């Protein structure tokens, strides 16, 4: 805001000097524009389609079939970008009919998948393009195009007795762990970017707190999730006036959880139960608090404060859950809470608060329900990519040139608005830390 005011003052001085100068003075509009950053757009100007929650991800229902059912097949799934670079998502094992239903959360801008089949050491691969939330791929008996060293396959060993050969088992010393399954991929982090003035509207620069995260759903030999691991790094702009905490409401009953660990708590205001979950929540909506005071952790990195990596581990191995049920809405119901006040929650648009939310906040500001303003604008956005935040006071529409088109099209256009292509990023208005 200060930057905008200064530029308006400069403009007024130029106009006044032109009016009162004894000589004829012509104001060159182009010269004025050269000195002004493109800061005329606003999230407030975007017409948000009814019911749109700024989604940048979706679940694809991928069905993989091996015609050769002489032995189980191990299928590996990769997403593929426009440069045909592959990024590993995860693995699963076929059933008795040679089929694997692999339903997973994916960035909407992705439209290509790369699938590998490992059948008795023979590797087959296929690339598929998809245009809907369903994709099918079949490997016939002659699909093999390369082989592993057979010496590593023959002479089967299974140290943990889970039925998966040690050469294929990614956890060959742990009977309840077999395969890693990542979101957004094994090589990337996603981001959630928050405004912290809730319930009042913010300035839509989304730099008050940014959560970078990577989830790993570890499955057993039956393709059921037994452990959930998350890596979390947060950052915020130096000078941010409010400290924040961060929590995640999980989408399954607390009875499924054996233990949860990794919380970084310093205020003494968060109480945990004997499982490591936050106490006094609905049993069917358990909450893990990742940290409760952003001011107490982190180091300067350019214009930002950035934390060390926080490692969250959730053990559900005694009551494993279907992979498709847990890989459809990551990062689940993630939220921040402001100034050590656990009841002052801020969620992604379309989400519901936890039972500890202070409902009086709904009558004190601009939230008309589901963490959206009357015009559908949010206090948080989810990006399946590591987010580069705008400079302080710079509306996101002036830092990402096609964000407005993405929103007004209900997410159908410019699904990659956050990617560094086609001048999507206006670098002069972003916080760039080398």
TrEMBL record:
Keywords: Signal. InterPro entries: DUF4842, LruC_dom. Pfam families: DUF4842 (PF16130). Transmembrane segments: none annotated. The keyword Transmembrane helix does not apply. It comes from the Bacteria. Residues 238-418 form the DUF4842 domain. Residues 1-26 form the signal peptide. The keyword Signal applies. NCBIfam families: LruC_dom (TIGR04456). This is LruC domain-containing protein. It comes from Flammeovirga pectinis. The lineage of its organism: Bacteria, Pseudomonadati, Bacteroidota, Cytophagia, Cytophagales.
């Amino acid at each position: 805001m200060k930057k905008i005011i200064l530029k308006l003052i400069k403009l007024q001085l130029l106009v006044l000097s032109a009016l009162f100068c004894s000589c004829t003075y012509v104001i060159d509009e182009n010269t004025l524009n050269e000195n002004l950053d493109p800061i005329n757009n606003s999230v407030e100007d975007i017409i948000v389609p009814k019911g749109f929650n700024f989604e940048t991800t979706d679940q694809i229902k991928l069905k993989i079939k091996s015609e050769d059912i002489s032995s189980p097949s191990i299928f590996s799934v990769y997403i593929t970008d426009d440069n045909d670079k592959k990024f590993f998502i995860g693995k699963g094992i076929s059933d008795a009919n040679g089929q694997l239903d692999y339903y997973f959360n994916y960035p909407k801008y992705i439209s290509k998948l790369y699938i590998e089949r490992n059948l008795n050491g023979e590797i087959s691969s296929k690339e598929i393009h998809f245009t809907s939330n369903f994709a099918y791929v079949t490997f016939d008996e002659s699909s093999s195009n390369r082989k592993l060293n057979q010496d590593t396959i023959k002479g089967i060993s299974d140290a943990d007795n889970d039925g998966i050969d040690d050469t294929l088992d990614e956890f060959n010393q742990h009977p309840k762990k077999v395969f890693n399954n990542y979101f957004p991929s094994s090589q990337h982090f996603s981001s959630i970017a928050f405004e912290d003035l809730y319930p009042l509207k913010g300035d839509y620069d989304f730099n008050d707190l940014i959560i970078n995260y990577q989830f790993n759903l570890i499955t057993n030999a039956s393709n059921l999730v037994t452990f959930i691991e998350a890596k979390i790094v947060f950052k915020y702009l130096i000078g941010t006036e409010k400290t924040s905490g961060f929590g995640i409401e999980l989408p399954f009953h607390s009875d499924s959880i054996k233990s949860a660990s990794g919380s970084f708590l310093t205020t003494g205001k968060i109480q945990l139960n004997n499982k490591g979950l936050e106490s006094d929540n609905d049993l069917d909506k358990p909450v893990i608090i990742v940290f409760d005071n952003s001011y107490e952790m982190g180091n300067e990195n350019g214009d930002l404060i950035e934390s060390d990596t926080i490692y969250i581990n959730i053990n559900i191995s005694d009551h494993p859950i279907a992979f498709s049920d847990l890989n459809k809405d990551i990062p689940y119901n993630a939220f921040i809470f402001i100034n050590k006040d656990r009841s002052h929650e801020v969620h992604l648009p379309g989400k519901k608060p936890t039972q500890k939310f202070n409902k009086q906040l709904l009558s004190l500001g601009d939230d008309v329900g589901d963490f959206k303003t009357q015009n559908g604008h949010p206090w948080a956005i989810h990006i399946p990519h590591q987010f580069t935040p705008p400079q302080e006071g710079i509306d996101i529409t002036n830092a990402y040139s096609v964000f407005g088109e993405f929103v007004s099209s209900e997410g159908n256009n410019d699904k990659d608005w956050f990617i560094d292509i086609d001048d999507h990023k206006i670098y002069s208005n972003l916080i760039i830390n080398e």
